What does this fold into?
Amino acid sequence: MICVLPGDNLQQIFDFCPPGETIILPEGEFRAKSVIRTPGVTIIGAGMDKTVLIWDDYAKKLDDSGRELVTFRTYTLAVCADNVTMRDLAVVNDALTPEVKGQEVALSVYGDSFTMERCRLASTQDTLFLGPLPDDLIQRYDGFLPDELRLRKPCRQLFRDCLIEGTVDFIFGCGEADFDGCEIRSLRDARGCGYAAAPSHELRQIRGFTFRRCAFTSEPGVEEGSIYLARPWRDYGMCVFEDCAIGPHISPLGFDKWNDTDRDKTARFYESPLPRGRVPWARKNIT
It folds into this structure.
């Protein structure tokens, strides 16, 4: 067991801890950008409002060579190892104003068998990325993103009793992710409209994002009917909503097809029970 002290270098601890180690983080703020590459580690904080991993990168920020970071280099924390567990902490990107700065990822998960419990994820646009990348982006970013962010591999993730906050597409990616008993909280956005999930699954994937007994809530000031549960980031994006509590900020239509695309013909969105007034391409049961 490794007990971290305030001021310790988290990246060095993540890099040099042995596989299967437990890392205990104290109460406090750790302002650093970090990557976990060691498999099997368990990271435990003092509480989702007490231990905070925080950074402020954003998509339009320029790197040292003058190139924009783009979405996938803005993370505060990236998990690039399998069998990682995190409990009782927060991962935050506090760049803010995404309508000017672009996407701002708090947590990216590229590992398989990832578990997060009683944690808070907070940002604005694109808070939580669930790897892997869509196939076309793996190709597009060859030579730009490091290989550890471009792996084509199954990535299964579990989020239990977590709070996830954001504005636009704030849960997105190709991961096969389960959200059990989580609060999905929409925040105010200057653009006046938001989307909770933006799945990008390939047709070959038979599982997508599954929200079970989750509460879709909003902070004060989010207008009634201004948020959609999901829109498909790629043609066959898949989301399942089971026995969720849906606040009045969610549009009666439920889902959006993504701008002027025809993804309403291919997206796989399921909601049970299925309320009246949902878009006609929303389904009640997986068949």
Q: What stands out?
A: The domain at 2-272 is CATH 2.160.20.10 (Pectate Lyase C-like).
